[in-house]
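Input chain follows. Return C-alpha cells only.
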Amino acid sequence: MTKRNHAIIAFLLLTAGFSYPAAANTGLTASAPDTAGQRNMLFGDPYILLHEGTYYMYGTSADDGIEVYTSDDLQHWKGPAGLRNGLALHKEDVWGDRWFWAPEVYALNGRFYMYFSADEHINVAVSDSPLGPFVQEKQEPMLETKAIDNHLFFDEDGTPYIYFVNFNDGLSVWVAELNEDLLSMKTGTMKECVRPEQAWEKKEGSVNEGPYVMKHADKYYLFYSGNGYTSQEYGVGFAVAGNAMGPWKKFAGNPILQSPDTLRGVGHGAFFKDKEGRLNYVYHAHNSRKKIHPRKVYINRCEFVKQEGVPYPVLRMLPPRQTPLLGAAETSRQNAPGNTEGMMKKQMPTK
C-alpha cells in the first residue's frame, strides 16, 4: 500500500460515516465567556485538528504568521503553543510577509500539511509536528494570481482536490485537482464551483468564501460563507453536487447559520470530529454587535436531517453552543499591538 493510500484512508476515516445523536443527548454544556479570569478564544477563520488525543486550534490572528493552541476537551485551551516563538508558522519560513489567513492542517504521510493564505495568495507548508514550525522548501504560492481560503478534500478514489476562493468580479469558490505531492495543483483542471447569487449572500459585497467540502449519503456538500466578513449578515450556506467537481446547486433554504441568538458576523468555519466521533463545526463571530475585532470562536455539534421537499439530507446545528476559553494564566499574542489592525485588513483591499 502506498503512502498516498495510507493518507487517503486516514482522511476518509476522519470524514466518513456521519451518524449523530439527537440534540437532547449532545452532552455539551454552554459556557459563559470571561469566567474566573478566563477569556474567549480569539480567532478569525478557526480550524481544529484532532491528533493523538489532543485538539489543535489554528486561525487568523497574528501579523507575522499562524498561531496554534491546544486542548484536551475543546473547552479549555492553552497557548500559544507554536514552536516558533509561539507560532506554528512564521513568515520567515514561507512565501509572503503579511495577511496570514485561514489555516487548515492535515496529518498526511507521517507529516503535517498547512494550507493557508498569505498576501492574498494560497500556499502550503509542511512540518513534522502540528505545533510547527511549518516550512516551505520552495517559497512560492500555489497560484500566481490572487486567491485565498484553500481547503483540501480527498475523494473516495483517492483523488486530492483543492478548493479556494478566486478574485473574479467579487469572490467565488473554485476547485482544482492536486498533484500527488499535495503541494501543487493541476491548473488545467481549475473550475468555478459557486458564486454569489442568492439574495441573502449579497447584502454587503459579492462574496462566497471559506469553502469546506464533505461527502454524505452519496452527495458532495460544499459549505461556504456569504457576504463580506465585516457584515452582520455574514452567514453559512451550502451547495450539493454529484461529484467533487460539480456542477453545484445551492440549497434553497440557505443560510443554515446566520445571526444565532445575539451573535453577528457568523461564519468561515470548519468541520471536525471530536474524540467520540461526533461531527462539530467551529466558526467565528464578531466580537459584539458593535465591534468586529477581535473575533470570537464558537463550536456547535451538527447532524444531517431529512427535510420535507428536499431530496437530500440537510445539515442542522445542534444546541447548546460551546464557547472555547483561554486559561487566565495563558499568554496570548492575539491582543498584541497591531494584530487587530492586521485582522481588519483581511479582504478589505477587495471589498
